[in-house]
Amino acid sequence: MPDTDSQKRALFHQVAETLKQQGFTIAKEDPTRPWGGFFVIDEAQAQKFANTYFDGLLVDSLRISGRLSPKILVVAPHQRLSWQYHHRRAEIWQVVQGPVGVATSETDEQGEVKSLQVGERIILRQGERHRLVGLKDWGILAEIWQHTDADNPSDEDDIVRVQDDFGR
């Protein structure tokens, strides 16, 4: 059985190759997160990304402030992203490989972790608390950030961590 680091490297290589074969430009890749990592896709490809991962959802219907940021999230088995929310974005997640666990709540009290299967989608409103949880196997999600402030688009600094397993 390969160790987790080699599994992670192999999976990241596989996801990168799949994205390139699908014609996507990877704007940023971060495999160093303690819970897994992510790929940021060129924003100009938001509709192509929606066509590929969100059953052709029209991105114009998703635009709140004009910008959308497509991403792929990779979560390791038995790892959790922080219990968090955002001031300047809403998010839409679609499970590509799973199942994965997702907890949501309107308050800082974490809700129950629910299992989402491949093809299932969840819409997270601006300010809604949420957490992605890796279950038995590696999970992969397609994610679209819906920027809610046109003058100050969301970024990695727009994460309010209510609880974090990694002390961030």
TrEMBL record:
It comes from Hymenobacter segetis. Keywords: Isomerase. This is Phosphoheptose isomerase. InterPro entries: Man6P_isomerase-2_C, RmlC-like_jellyroll, RmlC_Cupin_sf. The keyword Isomerase applies. GO terms for molecular function: isomerase activity. Residues 60-164 form the Mannose-6-phosphate isomerase type II C-terminal domain. The keyword rRNA-binding does not apply. Pfam families: MannoseP_isomer. Transmembrane segments: none annotated.
